[in-house]
Amino acid sequence: MFIKDHPNYNWNGGLSCACLGGNLDIVNLMIEKGATYFDWGLEGACSGGHLNLVNLMIEKEANGWNGGLSCACLGGNLDIVNLMIEKGATRCYKCFQSMEEHLRSIQKP
Predict the structure, then answer these.
(1) Which fold is adopted by the domain 9-106?
(2) Is-contact 48 25, C-beta < 8 A?
(3) Cα–chain-centroid distance for residue 11?
(4) From the CB of residue 61, how many other CB atoms can be counted at a distance below 10 Å?
């Protein structure tokens, strides 16, 4: 039996990993199979710097902006940081910096 056919597989955890890796085909398979917790996918996509998957998770109604911001900041993904702020992120869960501190810390010299 392949994992894609397993009836009790946790598709949400797989979704996060697929988003982190930037694999759109696997992300779509996870959604097709029943993944529904798109905030995990959002965090994975933000960590991996995959703007296309960030936008897909937003289309699927993910709304974990602070978690997404934290992951984007740690990954140094300025475009995604700005998108999370635009969507409403106010604080990083990982280091509790303000938005201004985040932007300064990830901008390249």
Answers:
(1) 1.25.40
(2) no
(3) 15
(4) 9
Is residue 6 classed exposed, middle or buried when 0-12, 13-18 and 19+ CB atoms within 10 A define those classes?
exposed
Measuring CA to CA, how many Å separate 51 from each of 16, 22, 25, 82? 14, 9, 15, 11
How far is 47 from 63, CA to CA, in rounded Å? 15
Q: Could you give the CA distance from residue 88 to residue 99 in angstroms, rounded to a whole number?
A: 11
pLDDT by position in tens, the chain (length 109)? 345 555 556 677 788 889 999 999 999 988 888 888 888 889 999 999 999 999 999 999 988 888 888 888 888 888 998 898 898 887 776 665 566 666 666 665 5
Angle between helices 51-59 and 38-48 (to 10 degrees): 160
Judged by DSSP in three states, 29 sits in: helix
Closest CA to 74 of 92, 100, 91: 92
